[in-house]
Amino acid sequence: MQHSNINTIKFITILTIIVSSLLSITSTQLKILQIENVELDKQKNILKAIGLDLSKFNIENIKYEYENRIRNVLLDLNGKIVENIKFENLELLKNKQSGEIRYFIGSSEYLPAYNSINPPAFIIPISGKGLWSTLYGYFALKDDYNTVLGITFYKHKETAGLGGEIDKKWFQDNFINKKIYNVSGELISINVIKGKADQVLESKSLIHGVDGISGATVTSKGVATLLKRDLIRYKPYFDKNRKINE
């Protein structure tokens, strides 16, 4: 009887070790797959922001286009490109002389911006509050650092058919060829209008406004607010390059 109990305990112990190992391996593999999917989703949305139609692209096509078109750009708060820093290991940098902390433009994760080679464009990560959730997306400017090339929203929990329309093509296409600077050189961003922009705004202001989403006033205002805030973060870089281009 005692011998039988010992064998039972041994069997259970071995089985537990095997099951635990299998679960650990599965968990690790799933985590790797999740990371790869997040990276692929990022690449898809950046490519969409610069105007690529990905409807017929497979995973390999997306990776190829991203690698051949897109380059990371890291900026400090003065709009200066920071070289020789690995994006995956970003930390706050301390100025050795003053002891002050130098922050990077972007979110708390220090997300880089992106340059597109073809078409020439500058893409920034955008995020902010909607009605029910935080909205995440990308916003692309042509190389005049003024004209909108595209916008995408890829993550949110807004109401389907209302605020959830921000990830639809009809809404995102409204932004294409709009301007973020006015004729006086002020960065005024893009306003999301309640109703139809062409019925509310004067003709000279239409270039800075897009149609809002019916029944989703809070989400529409959230998009306008987050977009202006995030664009202002990059204003020093825009201004430097706009002077070069003029």
Overall description:
This protein has 246 residues and is of the alpha+beta class. It has one domain (43-245). The chain contains 6 helices and 9 strands. The chain has helices spanning 2-49, 59-69, 169-173, 197-200, 217-233, 235-245, and strands spanning 70-73, 93-94, 101-102, 113-116, 121-129, 134-142, 148-155, 191-193, 209-211. A 5-stranded antiparallel β-sheet has the order 1-4-5-6-7. The chain is elongated and about 90 Å long. It starts with a helix and ends with a helix.
Number of domains: 1
The N- to C-terminal Cα distance equals: 92 Å
> Uncertain segments of ≥5 residues (pLDDT<50)?
94-101
Q: Based on helices, strands and strand pairing, what is the structural class?
A: alpha+beta
Shape: elongated
- Percent helix, as a range, is 25-40%
What's the main sheet like? 5 strands, antiparallel
Spatial arrangement of strands, main beta sheet: 1-4-5-6-7
What's the number of helices? 6
Instruction: Indicate the proportion of strand residues.
Output: 15-25%
- Topology order in helix (H) and strand (E) letters: HHEEEEEEEHEHEHH
Mean pLDDT: 82
Question: What's the short version?
Answer:
The protein is of the alpha+beta class.
